[in-house]
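ok posting inputs for the zinc ion job
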Amino acid sequence: MMVEISDIRNAIKGNKLSGQSICVHSSTRSFGGLKDGPRAIIEAFLTEGCTILVPTFSWNYLIPPAEDLRQNGWNGPRPAINNQTKIYHAGTNDIDVDMGVLPKTIVNMKERARGNHPLCSFSAIGEKAELLIKDQKPLDVFNPFEKLIGENGSILLMGVDFDTMTLLHLAEKKAGRNLFRRWTYNLEEKPIATEAGGCSEGFTKFSRYLKDIVKEIKVGNSLWKILNAEEALLLSTNVIKDNPEITRCNHKECLRCEDAIKGGPILTGAKNAID
Ligand SMILES: [Zn+2]
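and the output
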């Protein structure tokens, strides 16, 4: 059976999410049939007075490092490295294909707000969109989560697992790690360092630690996991402090996981790493 806007609205209302700010990580395919696709999700949440926050990363603005930092999880350029002087600003709609159709739809909407981070921007739509987004900066990549927590907001995993939950990278920072530095151009075409999250593949292991604060519901075939953002951040920060290995993925050679667990990049004495 096709899921319709009214089904999504009922799920929002029934789980007391109306009026909330919510960071959504989603697979629209998980519904097993969604009438009107991502537009149905957006319309349902906006009609219920919610603000939707989504990651809208755009790694095509990546440039090679302007300085070598130790423990920075970097072993050479990624394929998508920016060879022209390509300049990001919040008005651009570039987004990585693997971000999914909901973020892509939102970033292309006129009314959306998009953050000031060329590689790892967040975008939002709804009443609190501007508030959630306005203080994101190259060296404060996860500021939108601080604002989300200020609004007593939630995280919603819509048919996806904890390896999509970007908040867990903020938990790594709160646990004392430095976030990786990745380079891009600023508006003046000058190379700048930005903060970026690392490898997320190991994050599925958080399910057993977060299970007591996760509410699970089904909407069509889509399994939704709902978490209060602040509770999730506090709990997962403590989990990382107690057991740093929790974040390691299954790839033995994963340099990002290795360096993150050691504490991330060494910034003492780094020229371009702190603004
Ligand atoms: Zn890894």
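notes: The first helix runs from residue 5 to 14. The radius of gyration is 18 Å.
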